[in-house]
Design a protein that fits this description.
It is built from 13 helices and twelve strands. It is of the alpha/beta class. The protein has two domains: 6-31 and 288-395, Alpha-Beta Complex (Aspartate Aminotransferase, domain 1); 49-285, Type I PLP-dependent aspartate aminotransferase-like (Major domain) (Aspartate Aminotransferase, domain 2), CATH 3.40.640. It binds pyridoxal-5'-phosphate. Its cofactor is pyridoxal 5'-phosphate.
Length: 398
């Protein structure tokens, strides 16, 4: 309606949430829909984390927390960054929020003036460009394809930089491609950033633990630019805590203070109970994370083999996260059994939902129309059945 603000009218609906909703609607009609659209682990939060939350309630951690989070949680985050990533921060540089999503939004709103540019490699996580729009900034995209494993080169980065560039924003491991930048690849990008001291780097590391090629490499390890890096991370993916809403940033003190101020006028500190549980999650180690990663690695191979068995679909082997981003443009221009033409990746995702009863997400919402995203955070059994349905549905396009 016209009475809504231009700001909200300029935003798109989250495509991943929309496909999940459509899938649920079909399921409510009694149809067996397999969801490969949602970005969340299919595991339960580890028991010791749940116990910590119960204890937090019994101990009456039920009141407002400090806006940037309990000092004990921020200290646990500082310790984690030191022990796992070799990075030095102190608690004045940590701001806890209601998930990495809010952290990203806080950072963009605290750094971007209208018209300033945010450089985003495609494909990117759906919300990045919308958050930039909300802040009245301008997204500048660097296109990548499956041939370069969806990674940008230093030359591409250099070419995208203008006097208005303010932020470079990326995720590694990447949602939606699963690509992981190696230390050498990051070092090559850092050389470019060294020449442009006014650009900040948002490093979204929410998938750091779901990495099949070795240890996580953060771009904040490069001292020459560390002060300009804002690490965004959280508990959703590592500890299967998507519903708890717990994320954070690590940044220079000025940016951290600005995020604290932003949050102080919008959401305040995040859920006290989730924060207490977060302390336990970080203090008690990563055993549950390793078990989850093992399952993801097995499923990755399963889906890789099955995707390679579908004519017209081209895929790489993702190095992290729990997504595939196969190329599907060979189906554009074909018709479904009712005669509707598949024009783009969203059409294909809708076709797969309505005819194959599997929920995926069109690549167009991630900035690359020739692909679709499949999440393999589902049981082995469901994955096998989903890929069987996908193969069959795609074979019915003429
Ligand atoms: N960043 C990326 C790349 C994601 O995929 C997601 C969740 O899907 C988030 C951030 C948000 O995570 P959170 O649940 O912590 O808000």
């Amino acid at each position: 309606p016209s009475y809504l603000s231009d700001r909200i009218n300029s935003l798109s609906e989250s495509a991943t949430l929309k496909m999940t909703k459509l899938g649920r609607e079909l399921a409510a009609k009694g149809i067996n829909v397999i969801s490969l659209s949602v970005g969340e682990p299919d595991f339960n939060t580890p028991d010791h984390v749940k116990e910590a939350a119960k204890k937090a309630l019994d101990d009456n951690f039920t009141r407002y927390s400090p806006v940037p989070g309990y000092p004990e949680l921020r200290q646990a985050i500082v310790n984690k960054l030191k022990n796992e990533n070799g990075l030095d921060y102190d608690i004045s540089q940590i701001v806890v929020s209601t998930g990495a999503k809010q952290s990203l939004s806080n950072v963009i709103l605290t750094l971007i003036n209208p018209g300033e540019e945010v450089i985003i490699p495609t494909p990117y996580w759906v919300s990045y460009s919308e958050m930039v729009t909300l802040a009245e900034g301008k997204s500048v995209f660097i296109d990548t394809t499956i041939e370069s494993d969806f990674k940008i080169t230093p030359e591409q980065l250099e070419a995208a930089i203008t006097p208005k560039s303010k932020i470079f924003m990326f995720s590694s491991p990447c949602n939606p491609t699963g690509s992981v930048y190696s230390k050498d690849e990051l070092a090559a990008l850092v050389k470019v950033f060294e020449k442009h001291p006014n650009i900040f780097i948002i490093s979204d590391e929410i998938y750091e633990h779901i990495n099949f090629v070795g240890k996580h490499e953060s771009i904040a390890q490069f001292e020459s630019i560390k002060d300009r890096v804002i690490i965004v991370n959280g508990f959703s993916k590592a500890f299967a805590m998507t519903g708890w809403r717990l994320g954070y940033i690590a940044a220079n003190r000025e940016i951290a203070a600005a995020n604290d101020k932003m949050q102080g006028q919008t959401t305040s500190g995040t859920c006290s109970i989730a924060q207490r549980a977060g302390i336990t999650a970080y203090e008690q180690g990563l055993d549950s994370v390793y078990a989850m990663k093992e399952a993801f690695e097995r499923r990755r191979q399963l889906v890789y083999d099955l995707l390679n068995d579908i004519p017209g679909v081209k895929t790489n082997l993702p190095e992290g996260a729990f997504y595939f981003f196969p190329e599907i443009s060979s189906f554009f221009g074909k018709k479904d059994p009712e005669g509707n033409v598949i024009k783009d990746s969203s059409d294909l995702a809708l076709y797969l939902l309505n005819h194959g009863h599997i929920a995926t997400v069109g690549g167009d919402s991630f900035g690359n129309n020739n692909y679709i995203r499949l999440s393999y955070a589902a049981s082995d059994e469901n994955l096998k059945e989903a890929l069987r349905r996908m193969k069959e549905a795609l074979a019915n396009l003429v």
